Prior knowledge:
This protein is 10% helix and 49% strand. It is mainly β.
Amino acid sequence: MAIILVACNSSELSITEIQSIPTKVQDRINLDYTLQLINDGKKNAYIIFQSSGAVTAELEVIENILNIKLDSVNEENNELKHYVYKLTRGDATYDTIDVLVNGESTPFDNVTSIN
Length: 115
């Protein structure tokens, strides 16, 4: 648990799956969307991804592009689960976000803000 707290307060770029979703974020989640980005107006954003398999997330910055790699494995059942990730932007500089779902560039279904 301490690792999550350290990552949340860090000025480093990071992505962490969260179980305790802030109410203001929960209010913006739309289960009709597979991939959503919710900005909090600060240095954080929340990525909501629905998948029928277990999901892992990684970040990579190449030049001015932030690549968010979401890999879904073990898609054996059809029951969708939503995964919520907190993206801490830190001091990273980029002007483009590219989400790669299982290696394929995937657009956000919805981008919104909570402020």
